């Protein structure tokens, strides 16, 4: 688990580090001090990703590389000793540094449904929106997504207490070294081991299996919703642009009409303005789509928690089987009765029994191995139970937040569609008035 084996200052905070002696929260004015257990960083500090900037530099092979960096600004909420507001700290971070932070948190806290980062390249976009990751509109949406990621992490009662997070937010240099010093990459489970566990675990946790199935369905339905939204956006874009033809025709027609000219020209202006508004409307709609995409990516975070438990359960089952085997060998050696076929039993029958000294030495070795196996099973059982308990608690909190966020996003999307329809009705009502005045 995350709290096990924390050996240095870059590791997740140990229990004594998290809680002040008097139980109160420690100040965040210094990055070496930390919050109390269960506190939220956002209660002590303002966090925002205020701007993005494009930069270029030479990479390791002397090729010019262009990338985007994001300015993170933080400000302690408590005033200084003289009563003044603290000045903000600021650091520049690349997207890859956000990825490193998240990977570290995933490995250090495997029972937490980790907030996702915004997409690296735009997906599910209407055809006129650029999918280039250097496009200013995409960079702006990614900036909002990165800020949302930091706010979600900083509002989590466990993640917000991590010292690496504090260094990421406040220290321009050196934080990567602290991450690598934790040895978190060595703790990463190989894909092969995880895949093996998925197919071979015998007694999966029932509740987490349900969560795993739910995450698959959540991803499926969210993907379908985003695809449908993209198709609607494309068709809506086409309809608005066709309105531009109405405006052009009415304006050109007004040139040859004396009595009807003013009315046709006014109607054309109304419809032209309506047609031109679609680009801003659909770009605004992308922000609502990004809220849905966040939960599309959350589905993978849910599965990651379940996969980690499957791997822990698989290791427990392997340790249990090994313990049973050791106990059986000890019993056979002690009684001299071989109950199962073994190569050792065949050689004993051919070459005779071992000398008493050899038999005693093997018996002592099996006693030690059995004792070690029992301790390993005990530790794995505790780790497995703890992971499941913590995961279930965090998943319940995630679901509460998900229901609230998705309800808000879908309501906002519906209100925007209603507003667009009202605007269309108003435009054609204005055009009707123009026609009546001809």
TrEMBL record:
<dbReference type="Pfam" id="PF00787">
    <property type="entry name" value="PX"/>
</dbReference>
<comment type="similarity">
    <text>Belongs to the sorting nexin family.</text>
</comment>
<dbReference type="InterPro" id="IPR034783">
    <property type="entry name" value="SNX4"/>
</dbReference>
<dbReference type="GO" id="GO:0032266">
    <property type="term" value="F:phosphatidylinositol-3-phosphate binding"/>
</dbReference>
<dbReference type="GO" id="GO:0005886">
    <property type="term" value="C:plasma membrane"/>
</dbReference>
<keyword id="KW-0653">Protein transport</keyword>
<feature type="region of interest" description="Disordered">
    <location>
        <begin position="1"/>
        <end position="26"/>
    </location>
</feature>
<dbReference type="InterPro" id="IPR027267">
    <property type="entry name" value="AH/BAR_dom_sf"/>
</dbReference>
<dbReference type="InterPro" id="IPR036871">
    <property type="entry name" value="PX_dom_sf"/>
</dbReference>
<dbReference type="InterPro" id="IPR001683">
    <property type="entry name" value="PX_dom"/>
</dbReference>
<dbReference type="InterPro" id="IPR037430">
    <property type="entry name" value="SNX4_BAR"/>
</dbReference>
<dbReference type="InterPro" id="IPR034902">
    <property type="entry name" value="PX_SNX4"/>
</dbReference>
<dbReference type="GO" id="GO:0031901">
    <property type="term" value="C:early endosome membrane"/>
</dbReference>
<dbReference type="GO" id="GO:0031201">
    <property type="term" value="C:SNARE complex"/>
</dbReference>
<dbReference type="GO" id="GO:0015031">
    <property type="term" value="P:protein transport"/>
</dbReference>
<protein>
    <submittedName>
        <fullName>Sorting nexin 4</fullName>
    </submittedName>
</protein>
<dbReference type="GO" id="GO:2000786">
    <property type="term" value="P:positive regulation of autophagosome assembly"/>
</dbReference>
<feature type="domain" description="PX">
    <location>
        <begin position="48"/>
        <end position="175"/>
    </location>
</feature>
<keyword id="KW-0813">Transport</keyword>
